[in-house]
Amino acid sequence: MDYGRSIIAIIRERTSRRSYTPQPIAPEILAALEASAAGLRGPFGGKARVVLLDTSAWGGASINALGTYGTIRGARIFMVGMIRRDSRAMEDFGHQFEQLVLKATDLGLGTCWIGGIFNRTRFAEKAGVGGDEILPAVSPLGYPTPSRSVADSVIRWSAGSRQRRPWSELFFHGGFREALTPEVAGPYHEALEMLRWGPSASNRQPWRVVKEPGRAVYHLFLCRSRGYDKLIKAVDLQRLDLGIAMSHFELASGELGLSGAWQTLAPSVGPLPERTEYIESWVGT
Ligand SMILES: Cc1cc2nc3c(=O)[nH]c(=O)nc-3n(C[C@H](O)[C@H](O)[C@H](O)COP(=O)(O)O)c2cc1C
């Protein structure tokens, strides 16, 4: 994926926007976004399909038509993503859809991952989701209003969206007992910091990373939030979060000149915390 400027700057700039002006998006901007979607593939091989839908004919961004219960205001265009069902489809989807969210940010557009409550059936119908596909998330696209709506501010406040967990809760060294410091992470500390600023469902930040001592090997784990996995049966929101984390880590590493690749290993990091499972490892070269 090509970005017009520093991906680290784009990651720092992105925040979820839930209220939009009526300003239309120029066709060439939409075309650029569509073109970027074509070249994507997830780290586990799955390919997301993305459709940009104009919802104005649905009665504008009316509450009932979109099913977002007024949390998204004023947006007409939605980026709708789908992917074939597969055991790693969620990570693959998160990885690719986030790259498009960042591309939209690069192009000056506001976005917001919507994976929770929205009219999934209606979006699926309009976007032509196939029988073997699943629609994990959509995002509004448009020019955000200069100030946030009350609904947006309330959601941000309740999710604590301006904050992220401290390093000591997310990043570890050798095993889950020892916290990883930016000094020990060395050149990778910025890539981890970019992972940390990724969006996640309800800002739960379920990603955990264990660095191998003395090697640029970073094992990624999913630590499920209690009671969160049952929220939506078909879509595992926290696996989407892990795919997003992988994209941020990988994109930032690329910009920092740190080469490597994702690999499935069997890391021996000692006992895992509760509700924690292994996802994948970054092996620096
Ligand atoms: C997989 C996923 C699903 C999300 N679903 C919703 C949603 O349904 N409604 C919503 O308002 N925000 C949703 N969000 C946005 C998060 O609340 C937001 O990313 C988080 O609070 C961090 O804030 P930020 O994106 O502004 O950094 C979702 C985010 C992710 C990654």
Structure characterization notes:
Helix 1 packs across helix 4, helix 4 packs across helix 10 and helix 9 packs antiparallel against helix 10. The protein folds into 2 domains: 148 residues, NADH Oxidase, CATH 3.40.109.10; 118 residues, NADH Oxidase (3-Layer(aba) Sandwich), CATH 3.40.109. It contains 10 helices and 9 strands. By secondary structure, it is an alpha+beta fold. 43% of the residues are buried. The structure holds flavin mononucleotide (FMN). Flavin mononucleotide (FMN) binds next to helix 6 and helix 10.
| Overall mean confidence score, pLDDT | 94
CATH architecture title of the largest domain: 3-Layer(aba) Sandwich
What fraction strand? 15-25%
Largest sheet: 6 strands, mixed
Strand order of the largest sheet: 5-4-6-7-9-8
What structural class is derived from the secondary structure elements? alpha+beta
Order of helices and strands: HHEHEHHEHHEEHHEEHEE
Ligands (ions, cofactors included):
flavin mononucleotide
Tally of strands: 9
CATH class category of the largest domain: Alpha Beta
Taking the alpha carbons of the first and last residues, their distance comes to 21 Å
Topology:
Blueprint: H1 7-13, H2 27-38, E1 49-54, H3 63-66, E2 77-84, H4 89-106, H5 120-127, E3 133-141, H6 150-159, H7 167-170, E4 171-173, E5 175-179, H8 182-185, H9 189-196, E6 207-211, E7 217-223, H10 237-255, E8 260-263, E9 276-284
Parallel strand pairs: 4-6
Antiparallel strand pairs: 1-2, 2-3, 4-5, 6-7, 7-9, 8-9
Helix pairs in contact: 1-4, 4-10, 9-10
Bound molecules: flavin mononucleotide.
